[in-house]
Amino acid sequence: MINETYRAMLGAKNVIRELSEYATARGKEIGYENVYDFSLGNPSVPVPEAFTEKMIGLLKTGDTMSLHGYTPTLGNAHFKERVAASLNKKYGMHYEAKHIFPTTGAAGAVAHAVRAVSAPGDEIIVIAPFFSEYKPYVEGAGCVMRIVAADTDSFQIDFELLEKAIGKKTAAVLINTPNNPSGVVFSKETLKELARILTKKSEECGHNLFLITDEPYRDILFDKKEAPYVSSFYPHTLSCYSYAKSMSIPGERLGYVAVQPDCEAADEIVPMCGQISRGLGHNCPPSIIMQAVADICDETSDLSVYETNMNIIYDTVTALGLSCVRPGGTFYIFPKAPEEDAVAFCKKATEYDLILVPSDGFGVKGFFRMAYCVDTKKVERAMPVLRRFITEVYG
């Protein structure tokens, strides 16, 4: 018998993927260079040379079984040790290898983290705007996703609404900083207040509330700023990371869950993730990729082009009179649309071969997202088209 849950999901396809597919099809008609596709967050800069050299060296001289054989259930030991050492050096933490669980990207990390700290029927709170795929991660664990509405003036956290949302069934709060889609980085003040509220509410609820933090963009930062490390503010934190964006290797599917060493059950959560993997069919990332990244885990691609692109788009949309919170990182920008119906706005944009993503799937009405991980020259060519679209359609 067909599973009706997944059949029902066929009618709710990921709008970002649909737009990307439309852009590809349109590109075959008129040439992709004439389609201004800002739909998909696919890193566009070259991988670090150190990664390429490491892969070549491993393939030439590495032991075949070590490179291509099964890995331990809990991941490559050397990779885990190097990640822990890197986090300790960068953020003043005290992780050990036993606190690191390698995953297939940040998506796999979040999926494992949710299951590790919840039971079916529990509530997971997310802060809008949020990555649209959180819903299947949460509901796939048998939990209920509860949304805290966005503070659209700053895209920090509306703490009054958060406090009201937390109840006896709350297992965890799931945040994303730097944020997809807004590009906003949660400030130290925001994280301190979040930690205070979670501590207070944990006492009221009679159990520790966990914080799951989704951080694949924490190395893409603008204006020479740093992203506060969330796990340093609250002990019961599971940090989810991916090398997809920092090293431009999304197809290699390598990330991890880092369990804060002072967390409840800190020594048990990683082994629990290994058991969760048995049910998900996860079975760890590829051995060769963990080995390649282990000794160069602090390397990044040249990420400066994203700030260049952001400035070009931010200056254009604000000059057009569109309200927009300046991104502090990522490769996304989230302006307010000139009409409340963001879906209608983005549909009109396609008539100008502009592929923009409506905000509805991110839990916010009336905004649109642009993923500017594209060539700068194409961004520059797109801006006159964007200006023409806004002025001709909206005056």
How would you describe the overall organization of this protein?
The mean pLDDT is 95. The protein has 395 residues and is an alpha/beta fold. It folds into 2 domains: 137 residues, Alpha-Beta Complex (Aspartate Aminotransferase, domain 1), CATH 3.90.1150.10; 226 residues, 3-Layer(aba) Sandwich (Aspartate Aminotransferase, domain 2). The protein contains 14 helices and 12 strands.
Nutshell version of this structure?
By secondary structure, the chain is an alpha/beta fold.
Count of separate DSSP helical elements = 14
Q: What's the pLDDT, averaged over the residues?
A: 95
Helix content: 40-55%
Tally of individual domains: 2
Distance between the termini: 54 Å
N-to-C series of helices and strands: HHEHHHEHEHEHEHEEEHHHEHEEEH
Shape: globular
Percent in strands: 5-15%
Strands, count: 12
Name the descriptors:
3-stranded antiparallel beta sheet, Aspartate Aminotransferase, domain 1, Aspartate Aminotransferase, domain 2, 42% helix, alpha/beta, 14 helices, single chain, 2 domains, 395 residues
